[in-house]
Design goal:
The protein has 217 residues and is of the alpha/beta class. Helices cover 30% and strands 32% of the residues. The strands form four sheets. A seven-stranded mixed sheet has the order 1-11-9-7-4-5-6, sandwiched between helices. It has a three-stranded parallel sheet with strand order 8-10-12. Strands 2-3 form a two-stranded antiparallel ribbon. The termini are far apart.
């Protein structure tokens, strides 16, 4: 299942305008804050699909019956661009367990061909849990698939929610093929049709990591 929040009447689209705008995105603090706010909205939407249990809560005047999360999810993000959205998820799932993955593109001498370099993963067991995997940009889809497969080595989740701010059509198709028949829901806020030969999304928004934290060498 693919859920595109960008097709709904939602404040998400206002934040998306600011994230894509080449003038506004020069304000790195606002760029990070918009990613964080969208992360919180994704978290709220995903929360509607989780399991709940009835809980008694003692108030000053009596006892209230309130549904409460049956179990906390594991939030996993691909560094470094995933950090602001990760914070947005944590603002909603404040008791969640956390995992962090380091993966990056390694370009060949031609400057166009690349492979995804997976360095490390730090996090808890995912066995039988709800896993939320976050990366703002899903271009080729390769890093998301690699991260998902690495997390499976820590246990088989009961369900996985894969979240991207912007997905290319090609990357989305690649991801769907590689998680077929798995209990996975894919979330995005926009699907862009074009992917360049260097696997940059067009119109996209540029390099999310650089816009958040400055250009890297």
């Amino acid at each position: 299942m693919v859920i595109n929040l960008g097709t709904q009447n939602s404040i998400v689209n206002q934040f998306m305008v600011e994230l894509r705008d080449s003038g506004i995105q020069k304000d790195s603090m606002r760029f990070r804050k918009n990613l964080e706010r969208i992360g919180a909205i994704f978290a709220y939407e995903i929360s509607k699909q989780l399991d709940y249990k009835q809980t008694e809560v003692q108030t000053p005047l009596g006892v209230a019956q309130v549904p409460q999360l049956a179990a906390q999810p594991v939030i996993a993000s691909i560094l470094r661009a995933g950090l602001p959205m990760h914070e947005g998820f944590l603002s909603v799932f404040d008791k969640a367990e956390n995992a962090f993955i380091t993966a990056c593109r390694q370009y060949e001498k031609d400057g166009r061909t690349f492979h995804i370099s997976f360095d490390s993963i730090s996090g808890p067991s995912t066995e039988g849990k709800t896993l939320i995997l976050v990366d703002p940009m899903q271009a080729s889809g390769a890093s998301m698939v690699l991260a998902y497969q690495a997390l499976l080595k820590k246990g088989t989740p009961a369900h996985t929610h894969i979240v991207s701010l912007i997905s290319s059509r090609e990357g989305l198709d690649y991801l769907q093929r590689n998680v077929a028949n798995q209990p996975v829901t894919i979330w995005t806020a926009a699907i862009d049709e074009e992917l360049t030969v260097k696997s940059y999304i067009v119109p996209g928004l540029g390099d999310a990591g650089d816009l958040c934290y400055g250009e890297k060498e």
